[in-house]
TrEMBL record:
Record-annotated Glycosyl transferase family domain positions: 227-367
Keywords, alphabetical: Glycosyltransferase, Transferase
Family annotation (InterPro entries): Glyco_trans_1
Lineage, broadest ranks: Bacteria, Pseudomonadati, Pseudomonadota, Alphaproteobacteria, Sphingomonadales
Top-level division of the source organism's lineage: Bacteria
Protein's name in the database: Glycosyltransferase family 4 protein
Organism, scientific name: Sphingomonas mollis
PANTHER family: D-INOSITOL 3-PHOSPHATE GLYCOSYLTRANSFERASE, GLYCOSYLTRANSFERASE
Pfam families: Glycos_transf_1
Glycosyltransferase found in the keyword field: yes
Length: 416
């Protein structure tokens, strides 16, 4: 496929309309990724315009006042659906409002391509954008909990999996947005399977990395590991599937000098703090809270021996990519997203056979990594080399996506 940057399939500077419910450094991975895509495409010289929700307006006006953004405003229906906690209907309404405003903006902006960067679920419906070149994704989902961890799976997710096939078939008949678009897929075959249930076809699928890594992180020197270091890290939202409780329980079995810093926040924090107290780990566990991505976080990460993140239902996980780039060894469950990024040559991958097996294996990993700096350094070196070979840098990833944009544009022209 010709490179769009050469002018064979479009000028090097293109008008790109991005659409996402949130673009933010404060609202989780999807919001951060959507913002980073905007900033990186703009830095590459494209004329970028964004459609997003007004809930991020104050942050954007304060931190990114030069971005071109159109906002969806809350209305009475949104407010009441939120108060009544009718999340499926609220999600559908939010999606429709984003699409409606996107159509209006596209009429005056006349973009080369419209890229819906989130939501990432392969199940949530998208609406059509008639006459427009559309890209959606990266999509990532259809992640079940391992059999030994089914008790952790929320009831709503269990019910969703049980009715996935008929629900996808029905949604595919009612909503044609995904069937119109080129689909970026980062969740491998599990995501492709869910999309196929909704009527999407293989010629729409473009497999890709879920996320890029900023230059400020990629350009840092790899963390070198030597000697003894028993400081470990858990990074991410504090929700049940992230497995922070497993890491805490493992710490109780590990060397008595091992420590665990927990960076992030979420609904499970009070329960985790109770667990720490029950296990008598108060001096060894520190709840750091949320630390925004940037130099402060990256400087802090360089002091740890490993990232311990035994998530049991991780679609991908930006934290794993960041750790690979930094050269911070990873201890994770051999399942879903981490399984697609890493092998036993680059990380300690733990089979999810049972909760007790995972806890014991994480504790053993902490002890070996903490004591054996050479072993840790070997994992660090191989993981970073893989990240560099796969092109984790945002600019590298978006350069590849430009070919997808050009392909979407060509398809739209042929069908018009």
């Amino acid at each position: 496929m010709p490179d769009t940057a050469t002018g064979d399939r479009g000028d090097s500077r293109q008008r790109i309309l991005l659409v996402a419910p949130n673009i933010s450094r404060q609202m989780g991975g999807e919001g951060l990724k959507a913002l980073q895509i905007h900033l990186e495409l703009r830095a590459m010289g494209h004329d970028v315009r964004q459609v997003t929700h007004a809930r991020v307006r104050d942050e954007m006006r304060r931190d990114q006042p030069d971005l071109a953004i159109d906002y969806v405003e809350d209305d009475v229906a949104q407010i009441w659906l939120h108060r009544l906690r009718l999340k499926p209907l609220l999600g559908l309404l939010n999606g429709w409002q984003l699409h409606r405003l996107s159509r209006t903006v596209a009429e005056r902006f006349d973009p080369w391509v419209v890229h819906f960067t989130s939501p990432i679920s392969p199940v949530l419906p998208y609406f059509r954008m008639p006459g427009r070149s559309v890209v959606i994704g990266p999509l990532n989902g259809n992640v079940a909990h391992p059999a030994a961890f089914q008790s952790r799976e929320p009831l709503g997710k269990k019910l969703g999996r049980a009715v996935l096939r008929p629900m996808q078939a029905l949604l595919g008949l009612l909503f044609h947005g995904k069937k119109q678009a080129l689909l970026l897929i980062s969740g491998g075959e599990r995501t492709a399977d869910a999309l196929a249930m909704g009527g999407c076809t293989a010629d729409q699928f473009v497999f890709t990395l879920d996320c890029g890594i900023p230059d400020a992180l990629v350009d840092r020197a790899r963390i070198a590991h030597a000697g003894v270091n028993r400081s470990f890290l858990h990074l991410g939202r504090l929700v049940p599937y992230k497995g922070c409780d497993l890491a805490i329980r493992a710490l109780a079995r590990a060397h008595p000098e091992a420590t665990l810093d927990i960076i992030g926040d979420g609904s499970e924090r009070p329960a985790l703090q109770t667990l720490v107290a029950e296990l008598g780990l108060g001096e060894r566990v520190k709840f750091v809270g949320w630390v925004p991505a940037g130099p402060e976080l990256y400087d802090r990460l360089s002091g740890y021996r490993a990232l311990v993140l035994p998530s049991v239902a991780e679609a991908n996980g930006i934290a794993f990519q960041e750790a690979m780039v930094l050269g911070l060894p990873v201890v994770c469950v051999d399942w879903a997203g981490p399984q697609e990024l890493l092998t036993a040559d680059e990380a300690i991958m733990i089979a999810p056979t049972s909760e007790d097996d995972v806890v014991a294996a994480v504790a053993a990993a902490m002890d070996r990594l903490g004591q054996d700096g050479a072993f840790a350094d070997g994992l660090s070196e191989r993981a970073r080399a893989k990240a560099m070979a796969l092109g984790f840098r945002w600019r590298d990833l978006l350069t590849r996506w430009q070919d997808v944009y050009a392909d979407a544009h060509d398809r739209s022209v042929r069908s018009s």
